[in-house]
Amino acid sequence: MIKEKTVPPIPREVEDAVIPSVWETDIPGKSKLAQPVHVELKEGARAVQVKQYPIKPEARVEGPVFVKVPFSLADLVIWKQSAGTYRENPDKMACIVKMVIKTQNPDWDDIQVILDTLMDCTEKEMVLKAAKERAREDTRNGLVTGNLDVNFPIEDPNRDPNLLCNMRKLRKYQQWIQTEVQNAVPKTINWSKLYEVQQEKKES
Predict the structure, then answer these.
(1) Which pLDDT does position 184 carry in this prediction?
(2) Spatial CB neighbours of 27, under 8 Å, sequence gap ≥ 6
(3) DSSP label at residue 68
(4) Cα–Cα distance, 190 to 166 (Å, whole number)
(5) In the prediction, which pLDDT does 113 show?
(6) Domain of life, per the record (predicted)?
(7) Are 100 and 106 in contact, with CB atoms under 8 Å apart?
(8) What are the sequence ranges of the domains in the chain?
(9) Which among 71, 91, 90 is positioned nearest to 2, based on CA atoms?
(10) Which residues contact 80 (CB under 8 A, 6 or more apart)?
(11) How far apart are CA 2 and CA 92, in angstroms?
């Protein structure tokens, strides 16, 4: 799952020294605020090249920062027990998946773990196939940008969640999965409940 991480403020002197916007060429190199340094080399010695690089990305991003947090085994067990069997009660399964997506913000790999935990292989394949068809339709109709492979990857894309474009793609993928968990399995008729309804003699 992807959680927000609190990032402490960057000291001004550090920000001015390493943030790319203060570099003279906007690439790793000389800082606008860097003081010139005079170095005398011994005869025959070669100068050592020193490059300036930015600090970690999460320290430079404005707004919330997202980091990967793995599910616990206890979480998976509780969700499985709460969801029950998919074919018997797809609505209940859909509610659990919706809750997990809303509260845990799972990435591509997390979603595969969720489906593997809650469903058998056939059920998971059915959901993924239906979700991919919905993604294909949305892509064809221009509701999302990019091609189908980008919008509905079959392998972990390992995208940086701190890039807005990647988070949008993840949200859409979550939406397709959630929708097709609800719709992929045909609703079955509970015949036992119907047999419990007995017609009275006076009823026509």
Answers:
(1) 83
(2) 20
(3) E
(4) 42
(5) 95
(6) Eukaryota
(7) yes
(8) 1-67, 70-183
(9) 71
(10) 117, 118
(11) 24
Using CA atoms, how far apart are residues 167 and 11, in angstroms rounded to an integer?
28
Between helices 90-104 and 73-83, what is the axis angle to 10°?
150
Give the Cα separation of 118 and 124 in Å (integer): 9
- Third-level CATH fold of 70-183: Human Immunodeficiency Virus Type 1 Capsid Protein (1.10.375)
**Cα–Cα distances in Å, from 61 out to 3, 14, 18, 19, 104?**
15, 15, 13, 10, 22
**Residue ranges in the chain whose pLDDT is less than 70:** 2-39, 47-63, 187-204
pLDDT at 16: 56
Counted residue by residue, the chain has a size of: 204
152-192 pLDDT per residue, tens: 999 999 998 888 899 999 999 999 999 999 998 776 555 55
Structure tokens at 166: 């990647």
